[in-house]
Amino acid sequence: MRQSPEASPLIPSPAATALPPPPALPANAALFLDVDGCLLPFAPRPDAVDVPPALVARLTALQRALGGALALVSGRNLATLDALFAPGAFTAAGLHGVERRRAGDTGGTGVVPAALPKVRDAGLALIATHPGALLEDKGAAIALHWRMTPEPHKDATAAALRAFAEHALTQLPGYQLQPGDHVIELRPHHADKGSAILAFLEEPPFAGRVPVFAGDDLTDEPGFSAVNAHGGISVLVGDRAGSAARHRLPDTAAVHRWLGVPERTPETPA
Ligand SMILES: [Mg+2]
């Protein structure tokens, strides 16, 4: 077993090379894939990566075979992912989970949960019954204010708005309550790849499937933890020590073989 040079003998840190390879992709997988360093080898410049057409074709076939439950989970933004993987069209989370577009969406950055417009409308209906209350629409966030509410009604209004927000939170995966001075806000959690994967897993076609996530970098660690917590398959690409991943593939070529991407040959130039 190879020890990474920085591993301390006092703090056992499992050598990545000791991790077993992943099993074959389950038929009921929800497949999450990091891009750079996982699906694509690193290029000297990020805009110089080469996306083999055979990879796009295989991902498209997998997407279909998995009932749409395949998503790219990358540090790149969604627009760049779309350009790189064209003509493929994939569900994706960009910017390490800050941007998230769910299955079937064609727009750029469908970050907000499906229930958010309904919550906003219900909030508007509620404040209409509470003189002085205000709903501030911040796009991905909603703030409910009661500073202007006349004094005799302030406590009751505050209680009603807080109760509304607490209930709304149950419909907004990945959101949290942010209380303030005469205000309570519904806003997205600080996002990472783990929160993006967990949000996908709450929605069709990902919900109820076995989550599988492959990635190479430190920013993939929250994704590994999320997948492990759901009894899924976490796959480190490379030999970084101390990962939460439970499986390992040595490089992008091995990822391609695992996913069934046909190898490039001189007869089939990409
Ligand atoms: Mg990566």
Which helices and strands appear, and what pairs or packs with what?
Blueprint: E1 29-33, H1 53-65, E2 70-73, H2 78-85, E3 91-94, E4 99-101, H3 116-128, E5 134-137, E6 142-145, H4 151-169, E7 175-180, E8 183-188, H5 193-201, E9 210-215, H6 221-229, E10 233-237, E11 247-249, H7 252-259
Parallel strand pairs: 1-2, 1-9, 2-3, 9-10, 10-11
Antiparallel strand pairs: 3-4, 5-6, 6-8, 7-8
Helix pairs in contact: 5-6
Residues 34, 36-38, 215-217 line the site of magnesium ion (MG).
What does this structure look like?
It is a single chain. The chain is an alpha/beta fold and 270 residues long. The protein folds into 2 domains: 25-98 and 191-259, HAD superfamily/HAD-like (Rossmann fold, 3-Layer(aba) Sandwich), CATH 3.40.50.1000; 116-188, Trehalose-6-phosphate phosphatase related protein, domain 2 (Alpha-Beta Plaits). Helices cover 29% and strands 19% of the residues. The protein is built from 7 helices and 11 strands. The protein has helices spanning 53-65, 78-85, 116-128, 151-169, 193-201, 221-229, 252-259; strands at residues 29-33, 70-73, 91-94, 99-101, 134-137, 142-145, 175-180, 183-188, 210-215, 233-237, 247-249. The strands form 2 sheets. Strands 4-3-2-1-9-10-11 form a 7-stranded mixed beta sheet, sandwiched between helices. It has a 4-stranded antiparallel beta sheet with strand order 5-6-8-7, with helices on one face. The longest helix has 19 residues, at 151-169. Bound molecules: magnesium ion. It comes from Luteimonas terrae. Its cofactor is Mg(2+). Pathway: Glycan biosynthesis; trehalose biosynthesis. Keywords: Hydrolase, Magnesium, Metal-binding.
